[in-house]
Specification:
- 14% of the residues lie in helices and 44% in strands.
- It has 124 residues and is mainly beta.
- The strands form two sheets. A four-stranded antiparallel beta sheet has the order 3-4-5-6.
- Strand 1 and strand 2 form a beta hairpin.
- The longest helix is centred in the N-terminal third of the chain and has 13 residues.
- The protein is globular and about 45 Å long.
- The N terminus is likely disordered.
């Protein structure tokens, strides 16, 4: 299934359609968060195309999709994460999968962030 999702996005990009334009209107991504220093866990909901702040990180989700109930349960999202320390360095850009949070995880000494859900108008 991951292969087909990648092919779908590649086709959209080849056709000149941006990922945000192909996204369901008002889609929101739910992230689980962990601050390793304070051991605080939490949840963060961000609209696709918006930017959210978590500690010193800026999270910019680009796309999310949740498989329909008749298919294998999977949520996947394309996310960009930047360090907000004045440098604006991109520290993560890629796909995150809810079923495999360690597969493409953010590697940061202080924070862990992983996708848990994708909410669209149809799934609310």
């Amino acid at each position: 299934m991951k292969f087909f999702a990648g092919c779908f996005c590649a086709l959209l990009l080849c056709a000149g359609v941006s990922i945000v334009e192909a996204q369901e209107p008002d889609a929101r991504i739910v992230f689980a968060t962990l601050d390793k220093v304070t051991a605080r866990i939490g949840s963060l909901e961000v609209a696709v195309g918006d930017t959210a702040q978590f500690g010193t990180l800026k999270i910019h989700p680009r796309y999310c999709r949740k498989n329909p109930p008749e298919e294998r349960a999977e949520v996947f999202a394309f996310v960009e994460i930047f360090e907000d320390d004045g440098s604006g360095n991109e520290i993560f850009s890629g796909w995150m999968f809810a079923s495999s949070p360690g597969l493409n995880a953010l590697e940061h000494p202080v924070y862990d962030i992983w996708v848990t859900d994708c909410k669209t108008q149809l799934s609310r």
